[in-house]
Amino acid sequence: METTRAGTTVAPASRALEVIGGDLTERSLRRYLEGIPGVDAVGLEARAAALGTRSIKTTSKAWALDTIIRLTDLTTLEGADTPGKVKSLVAKALVPDPDDMSTPRVAAVCVYGDMVPHAVEALGSAHDDGATGRINVAAVATAFPSGRASRSVKLSDTSDAVAAGADEIDMVIDRGAFLSGRYGQVFDEIVAVKEACKRPDGTYAHLKVILETGELNTYDNVRRASWLGILAGGDFIKTSTGKVTPAATLPVTLSMLEVVRDWHRLTGEKIGVKPAGGIRASKDAIKYLVTVAETVGEEWLQPDLFRFGASSLLNDVLLQRQKLTSGRYSGPAYVTID
Amino acid sequence: MSRLAVPKTYKLYVGGKFIRSESGRVYEVATTKGSFSVSSVNAAKASRKDARDAVVAARAAVSGWSGTTGYNRGQVLYRIAEILDGRRAQFAEEIAAFEGVSASAAQAQVDEAIDLWVWYAGWADKYVQVAGNGNAVSGPFFNLSVPEPTGVVAVIAPQSAGVPGSLLGFVRAVAPVLVSGNTVVVIPSEKAPLAALSLGEVFATSDVPAGVVNVLSGSPAEIAPWLAAHADVNALDLLGAGELEWVDLQIAAADTLKRVLPPEPGPDAGAPSLERITFFTETKTVWHTKGLL
Amino acid sequence: MTFLDYAPAPESAAILNLRDEYGLFINGEFVPGNGESFTTISPATEKHIATVSCASEQDVDAAVVAARRAYDKTWSRMSGADRGKYLFRIARLVQERARELAVAESLDNGKPIKESRDVDIPLVAAWFFYYAGWADKLEYAGLGPNPRSLGVAAQVIPWNFPLLMLAWKIAPALAAGNTVVLKPAETTPLTALLFAEILQQADLPAGVVNIVTGAGATGSALVNHPDVNKVAFTGSTAVGRQIARSTAGTSKKLTLELGGKGANIVFDDAPIDQAVEGIVNGIFFNQGQVCCAGSRLLVQESIHDDVVERLKARLSTLRVGDPLDKNTDVGAINSASQLGRMRELSDIGEQEGAERWSPACNLPSEGFWFPPTIFTNVSTSSRIARDEIFGPVLSVLTFRTPAEAIAKANNTPYGLSAGIWTDKGSRILAVADKLRAGVVWANTFNKFDPASPFGGYKESGYGREGGKQGLHAYLAPSAFAGSSAFKGDAR
Lengths: 338, 293, 491
Fold this sequence. Notes:
The complex is a heterotrimer. By secondary structure, chain A is of the alpha/beta class. Chain A contains 14 helices and 8 strands. Chain A is globular, with a radius of gyration of 19 Å. By secondary structure, chain C is an alpha/beta fold. Chain C contains 15 helices and 20 strands. Chain C has helices at 57-75, 80-96, 98-109, 113-134, 162-175, 190-201, 216-223, 237-246, 272-284, 304-315, 336-351, 383-386, 402-410, 425-434, 467-472, and strands spanning 21-22, 24-26, 29-31, 38-41, 48-52, 148-149, 152-156, 179-183, 209-211, 230-234, 253-257, 263-266, 296-300, 355-357, 373-376, 393-399, 417-421, 439-442, 461-462, 475-476. A 7-stranded mixed beta sheet of chain C has the order 14-15-16-13-12-17-18, sandwiched between helices. Chain C has a 6-stranded mixed beta sheet with strand order 9-8-7-10-11-19, sandwiched between helices. Chain C starts with 20 loop residues before the first strand and ends in a 15-residue tail after the last strand. Classes of the chains: A alpha/beta, B alpha/beta, C alpha/beta. The interface between B and C is large, with 45 and 50 residues. Chain A: Pathway: Carbohydrate degradation; 2-deoxy-D-ribose 1-phosphate degradation; D-glyceraldehyde 3-phosphate and acetaldehyde from 2-deoxy-alpha-D-ribose 1-phosphate: step 2/2.
């Protein structure tokens, strides 16, 4: 797919065609995205802060803690990752708390593309189709985290991971293209990556579109990029790579959830949201659950529609869980490190 | 001395026009000294319906007058001083004849009135800076307070003879109200209304938009209650109402929560001050979010 | 049970250490009143909280005498710096006892604890902090050198923000050097009485602040007392009018903060999600029992349906119930009589042809409750578009052009507040210029700050609270001031 220029036709994508119309061009895409109502940062942040004051206690808290675990993409994305590290991560994903087998499993493990075979192997039968407590393998792709590589590298990055057994692809958008106003290029790339998610049997790996909101900077950009990601065919929109500060914030996630809500109002289709990076405490994660429930509705609190991209969060949730069960405070020595 | 004078008919000044009272009434105003062309003149005697019409004219003029820039209002008020300065002799003569003061005292009164227009003219583009302020609130908000004109102000100008006098008293009452962009309906001195009515001619030739100043000569005791109770009047200046049943006027004004200034006695009545400008303003505070993202 | 049903998260009332009975606070001490004592109840449960003394005319007189003595002997002679220190002390004590005060406020008023905790009480402390600093800087307040205090201030406050309104009144009065007799509202005296304890803790000289509880007769005795120099009232326009009449002809300086029917104007280019939040905050904050509430929504016709749909979805997530539950968004109505007025006016709205909508919500069987309510298809002549309902009831009207929005917004005898929602900065400033309202919130609503003057145009009253303008209500220019006066050469 060629880079599009103003006025040239961008790659067809059924959602965009339906919403924007047949004459899908860089210009029409831009006009559409720029026609979306703006965001007042102060109001957005105040709303997020207000949602953050919800007090989640007792039974609600117990449910919330288990739900956080079920929604977690347990993640390791280090240059120093090894098969051994991935194995250890998978072990934690399978049995988060060896002292309490009632603890639910996480939704997925999230690794670099070259680690996918190791993750698949370590998961074993827990990765089989239809397995109870199945754990997905998510791979970051498209020259994660910067996204600075040629289109062909990004596409083979993606197809390699899918071929190796990745169930989900976490791609990064080209923030440079977005910030310089080349929305069509970003759009085309997402469409192309989505195509690269196609498996031989005609099914697709789930595509999460990472906006890297810390680099997009403004809420208006986040909102436009969210629309762009959805229009181009993303199954999820995801805040961050975790390599840029700020990573996920509550206001950014709220603004993305508002887009998802509006998309649902418009089309009836449900898109997922994944805040990633920087969410380390159960208390903070619960604020996200509240924000999801009060913005798009409680039905979004399931792994197909909401995920946390996190690593250290899980252990904090386990400590809180132990406190709820035992009635006393626990300590880091009582949870395992992966 | 042989020439036969052509005396003027002193009419009300309402909506930019010189009109007779709708009631057809006049009252005689006699000179106290023989130096005038005639021994007495008739001034129109306003009725409650004239007061009603004057409020309508004043209300209609609010948006235009308050919508001009302070710089522009300042120039218009200064223009009043210029035109008045050119007619010093006429005003001094009227004052001397009808107030019974010496020629030099009359002249001094006119000159002070002129200078007072100049003083207030200079405030028009400054009172907002002095009385307004930016507010440092604890939050991401731009927050600014500015005084704005309250709207239509009914004024009872000083009535008693002597200092400050019918012209200066009138100017002390009216000028500060105009500075911010209010319009006025004013009842001048009942006994000595001529300077005020002549001043109408100055307004009419000084770029003061029609309806901004409305002058109702006649009986304050008769007209003031209608103005005090009028729902479309925003404020009431009782400066010269000391001899009237002014408490009743204030009570009537309470019905629509008018802003009311009490009577002031003596030569310092309505002494020039910033407070006379700001009293007839409303502070408006505007908040706006400040967000970088 | 669903997650959104959030398990109960009640704020503990155990922090309160209430007495069974409260006297009047006169001359630094609690003394029994000579009127007939009354009960203050929790509007959420109708349960008894405490018995409160009622101040008779004689008690009011004693309070004014105490205030006069304190003014003459102590407060007017004290340095501004020392007055400021007392106010700083009070601010700190309020902060220290914030939790307790918040619980008491929610218990007595019915407002959600999250509002008393996050808005009312923090603002109370902020108000004292702000005016504390003014006490020794009065010559910079804009009234020339050596401005004078007025003397004894009579202050009557409403029930919707009981302690906050007390702070709005007492902080500037004391900073300016006046002494105070304050009457809290009959249905919400509790936090004012706890505040009296704080004054004792602060060692504020006796008589500087006196608190007389009671109903309308007590208030009337107070504002009409011949020895008060200043009357400050917040409440209904009807009572404000009476006070303006009864103080006519006296030298009492009067400031009034009265009713409103605020317009919240939403243009088609508004940041829509924040606008919806602002509409909700504008009319459902404190159950809409706010004089500056955005009770008239003026929405551009082209986005009317979208806004109403979003608004309804948002309202469906509002949690109505126990004021002491930390997750409650909308609490109880303050009294049976207020509830009656909301019901009556809402019924009239329906009879006049407006369409009424409320989200499904289970209202408790005890106490006073009214569901968040939206009226669409409201005409400008309808009573629900003109009368202050003072409850969680929003009237939705439409406009086509900015000029029409301004005309409709100004088409009311009130003039307290307004809101503007648009992404277009120049339009915000132009519309704000033309709105006849004392407070205009652009892309926000219901924000308050001690540095920000607040008060109305037209029948919403006169005078400002907050900022240096708020000080002017309690000061007079020095008798010797003359620096701003014109000195004509011709003199």
